[in-house]
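Entry 14. Ran structure prediction on the chain below.
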Amino acid sequence: MFGDINRATILGNVTKDPELRFTPSGSAVLSFSVATNRRYQKNNEWVDSPNFHNIVVWNNAEELSKRIKKGTRLYLEGRIETRSWESQDGKKNYKTEINAEKVILIDRYEGKNDQQNAEFTDEELTSSNAVEEDIDPTDLPF
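Output, structure tokens:
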């Protein structure tokens, strides 16, 4: 019999600066959202339809928090998880997130001219130099 597959692959832009938090046991966790666009033609005009994805990173969260900003373009892979909780008024809430296991920075915006591509995975943290254009976060449509 075949096992199940729960895999998400995203290539998009970070919509706002990430939030770094720590669990009571001291583990770092990074949360942010990534926008992806579906482009299609309607009445002879191209239309962009954005989708927003909630991302959670556990491994290398502190290092990534120093390098990811609003506007960073990244590729990530992970599993989709939906968590639920009950609010103080008794209402059941749900949130679907991608628990990222592999994150590759395609571009990063830090107000500098030096750009780097970097890959962060469960096993390693590596980086290499690349020449890329600066991304101005104010130019992003979100």
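The first strand starts at residue 8 and ends at 14. Will compare against last week's run tomorrow.
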